[in-house]
Structures are given as structure tokens and as C-alpha cells.
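Here's what a typical entry looks like (Putative transglutaminase-like cysteine proteinase):
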Amino acid sequence: MQNFIGKTIAAAALMAAAITATPAAANDTAMLTTGATSQPVGHYEFCKVYPETCRRNDAVGVVRMTRDSWSKLVEVNTAVNSAIFARTDQDMHGVPELWSYPTVQGDCEDFVLLKQYMLAREGIPASALLITVVRQPNGEGHAVLTVKTDQGDYILDNLDDRVLAWSDTDYQFLKRQSERHAGKWVGIADDRNMLVGSVR
């Protein structure tokens, strides 16, 4: 895994350099969460295989947004998006849902898991790297990585090499991992006016 990560980041260095090196100010500081909600079945099964990734977080923190931390987010997002070929679980494994770390191909949850892993190895606290379930404008479900920062919540997405403030996406946010316990999930109160089909 570590050799793959090194090669992935190196391969995307030139692409990442072409993307803005500083974050835009977040429109809304952070998502509002509600109470506990159901854990996706795929994540439940993933936790049985990798229980160390689904523990209670001893401390809850956010990323201090600096030029360096912003560059890490952009670099990892671009690197994984460039290195992994998108395929469905049905095509890869013959089942509707199977969350796993990708090496060559994967679906949206697999992209998220690898980005989460890579950023955690860069020293970003687990409580700030949250798998998030959204609904796309076309009604389909999707998974992205929410990164909690002192400038708001930002989204890493396999459908977009840009790192965007959550409120600048066209998604409806449904639920995400709890920042206090990676094996628990909380609902999201997304009351923004959704511009279905808009392009940003």
C-alpha cells in the first residue's frame, strides 16, 4: 500500500501543481449534523475487516488550513482520482456493495477510503476525515470525503479534482461518520436551496 501511495502522489504532482494552491473561503462554515443514524451496510462490513479504522476517536480536532494543508488535500484528491479507474462493485466483485481499499479500480466509496487512509498517514486527525453519503442532482447515491477544517468543511470527490466547500457542491448531504466515533454515523441537516442540474 505504501509503495502504491508514493507512486500515486508522484504521478499526480504535475497535475496538482496546476490547481489553485490556496483555498477559497467557505460559504458556510460547517455542516449541521443531527442525531445518530444508520451505518451503511458496506461500511459495517468494512469495519469487520478493518476494525482499527472504526474506533472511537480519543480527541476531536479539525485541520488548520494553511497553504501546506490545502496542497495536501488537492494533491491526494488528484492523485487518487488519476490512479484509480472507476468501476462498480457489481462489475468488480459480482455484488451490489463491497467497500475496500482500491489499487487499480474502485467505486466511489473505495476512492474515499483510500483518500482517508492517505491523509491520515499525513497526520490529519481521523476525526476530521469523514466518509459522507450524498445524493446527486440525478437522484443517485454517492460517497465523498468530508475534511473538517478551521475554515469549514471541504469535499474530496472522485467526480471532481477540485476541492470544494461542501456548500459549493450540487449534492444533497444525507449522513456521515461521527467525528467522535468512526464506526458510528450521524444525519446531516442540509437545508440549502438545491439548484438541480446547476454547474459550478
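The first strand starts at residue 33 and ends at 37.

More examples are in the samples folder.
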